[in-house]
């Protein structure tokens, strides 16, 4: 079997260490060279995984794939620094669509750019709670999304295989475009979902401030989130009561602007990503 050499940048960070651990399970297919600038991160890899890091030049020498497990704000800088050392045909993998969408990757049409991101385990997954593994990549199955931003069509297979390894165990793998991935994050997952969840937490705090015991409010909200989500997302057959539907009809215009879906317009997505990167 042909070995593929991977240079993993940011290997000692929180996400990088997850990837390093999972890549060890595919050692028959992937030879990994780890790069970590921080002393604490290098020591972490040594202590937890027995991994020794190498410098950038050694990592990139003959590497066919480069994974940038670094913060969004650093992807452009790191990519620009290493680009002159990358041979034509090298695949560069980023773990988020923000920097690629914003145009922060070097203008190298001879490189392959692959973007992949985890969906994280579903709230309906029993494994999330029994493991527990809320983030994914350890024991609870999760789905992933991937995009081939540029490069030969046949390169997608390699990129997706690596994605399935670093995010394992994987339930489903979805192919999307970079623009679609930007709609998913930050659009759907952060601008909408995280904002509304933060608002729900504020609402819980408000009823506590108005006298409801905190434990009662938390149990009540989280329990209702489970059944309401199961019905709304058709995890189970069912429908809301007339009273609940009337509350939604009255509540939505009180909580949401009429034009709230503009957050998915290209200019809004671009502005959101600009703030992130």
Structural notes for this entry:
The protein has helices at residues 14-23, 39-49, 56-60, 72-82, 98-101, 126-130, 155-166, 178-209, 214-232, 242-255, 266-276, and strands spanning 4-9, 30-35, 65-68, 91-94, 112-118, 142-150, 170-175. It is α/β, with parallel strands linked by helices. The chain has a seven-stranded mixed beta sheet with strand order 2-1-3-4-5-6-7, with helices on both faces. Strand 1, helix 1 (14-23) and strand 2 (30-35) form a beta-alpha-beta unit. Helix 8 (178-209) runs antiparallel to helix 9 (214-232). The longest helix is centred in the last third of the chain and has 32 residues, at 178-209. The radius of gyration is 22 Å and the shape is globular.
List the helices and strands and how they pair.
Layout: E1 4-9, H1 14-23, E2 30-35, H2 39-49, H3 56-60, E3 65-68, H4 72-82, E4 91-94, H5 98-101, E5 112-118, H6 126-130, E6 142-150, H7 155-166, E7 170-175, H8 178-209, H9 214-232, H10 242-255, H11 266-276
Parallel strand pairs: 1-2, 1-3, 3-4, 4-5, 6-7
Antiparallel strand pairs: 5-6
Helix pairs in contact: 8-9
Averaged pLDDT: 97
Strand content: 15-25%
Q: In angstroms, what separates the terminal alpha carbons?
A: 39 Å
Shape: globular
CATH architecture annotation name of the largest domain: 3-Layer(aba) Sandwich
What is the β-strand count? 7
Output the CATH topology of the largest domain: Rossmann fold
Low-confidence stretches: none
Q: Could you tell me the radius of gyration in angstroms?
A: 22 Å
- Helix/sheet category: alpha/beta
With strands numbered from the N-terminus, the spatial order across the biggest sheet is: 2-1-3-4-5-6-7
What's the number of helices?
Answer: 11
CATH class of the largest domain: Alpha Beta
> Tell me about the biggest sheet?
7 strands, mixed
CATH superfamily of the largest domain: NAD(P)-binding Rossmann-like Domain
Number of domains: 2
User: Could you estimate the helical fraction of the residues in percent?
Assistant: 40-55%
Q: What letter string, H or E per element, gives the SSE order?
A: EHEHHEHEHEHEHEHHHH
């Amino acid at each position: 079997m042909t070995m593929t050499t991977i240079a993993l940048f940011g290997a000692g960070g929180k996400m990088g260490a997850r990837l390093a651990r999972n890549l060890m399970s595919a050692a028959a297919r992937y030879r990994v060279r780890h790069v970590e600038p921080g002393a604490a991160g290098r020591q972490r890899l040594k202590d937890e995984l027995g991994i020794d890091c190498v410098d950038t030049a050694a990592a990139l020498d003959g590497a066919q794939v480069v994974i940038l497990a670094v913060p969004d704000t650093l992807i452009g800088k790191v990519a620009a620094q290493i680009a002159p050392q990358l041979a034509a045909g090298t695949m560069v993998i980023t773990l988020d669509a923000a920097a690629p969408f914003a145009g922060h990757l070097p203008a190298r049409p001879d490189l392959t750019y692959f973007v992949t991101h985890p969906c994280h385990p579903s709230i309906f997954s029993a494994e999330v709670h029994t493991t527990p593994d809320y983030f994914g990549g350890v024991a609870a199955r999760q789905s992933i999304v991937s995009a081939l931003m540029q490069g030969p069509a046949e390169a997608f297979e390699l990129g997706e295989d690596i994605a399935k390894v670093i995010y394992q165990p994987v339930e489903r793998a979805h192919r999307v475009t970079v623009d679609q991935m930007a709609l998913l994050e930050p659009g759907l997952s952060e601008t909408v979902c995280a904002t509304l969840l933060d608002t729900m937490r504020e609402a819980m705090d408000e009823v506590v401030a108005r006298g409801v015991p905190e434990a009662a409010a938390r149990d009540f909200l989280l329990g209702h989130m489970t059944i309401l989500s199961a019905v709304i997302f058709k995890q189970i057959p069912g429908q809301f009561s007339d009273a609940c539907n009337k509350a939604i009809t009255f509540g939505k215009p009180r909580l949401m602007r009429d034009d709230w879906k503009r957050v998915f317009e290209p200019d809004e997505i671009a502005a959101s990503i600009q703030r992130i990167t």
